[in-house]
Fold DUF6089 domain-containing protein.
Amino acid sequence: MRSTFIALFLIYMCLSEVQGQRRNRQPILYSEIGIGAGSAIYRGELAPISQLVQPIAPLPRWNVGINYMRHLTPYFSVRASFTWIRLVGDDYTYNKDNPNLHPVQFHRNLHFRNDLKEIAVSGIYQFFPETARPSQRPSLTPYATLGLALVAHNPQARLPTRTSGDALGAWTDLQPLGTEGQGQAGYAKPYSLIALAIPVGVGLRWKLNQSLNVSAELSFRYTFTDYLDDVSGLYPNRSDLPNEQSAMLSDRRYEPTDARTGQSRTFELASLTNVSTNVRRGLPGNDIYILTHLAVHYLIPTPVKCPN
């Protein structure tokens, strides 16, 4: 009888220990690797955020990227990503349908393109909790992101067609030209081609099958530079610029064509009214860009941990 009691007691203690381990067991950590693409929209001097409703303004381009995500808790994950982004802005394209709506911008006639290489680390908050096993994860997960990014960029513009002899001028790096006098005596130093940015976004992730997820994300990047478009301050004195090419790309107000598209501006220039002799190329305020991104994620297999 005593031996039976001892045996039952030991079984009870073992079962209690196993149950306690199950209650205290942490979620199994797992990871995903993803690849995707989407659109990219620039906002700055050449496409002001205050004029967001104007449909031609964004001149959308593209982004492609890869990412690695690690799920840490049921609600929180960390993601590292690399994204290649193209941005474009053009005063002419933005204002050609109604030059007198924003005459100063149309008259300015600046444009740019910029290929950004962005490395970002973001925290992700999932509104529906993950389960202990990836195979039992929710079918649909809305989430929000916040992070920090390092961005390498290099704004370019086309040379005037009259100097290149081609239908369209060659693309030329703008930062070394100091189009606002940067680097010359009495002017600011050249701006950096490396900038910080804060990515903020929301997204939705679908469980496609046991090994794949699909996500759609909309995110906003606030950058700590006003020179994604090479435009920020005043027109410099032409005589202060180091060479003729710097002068040509600094002040393009009287070019008869839009160098980016090759379209004539002559008729629109003649119709302009209320154009002041404005000495500003741009206005203070950092540039931003907006990304949409559709991605496919592969869940990296995780070994199952068996209880002792």
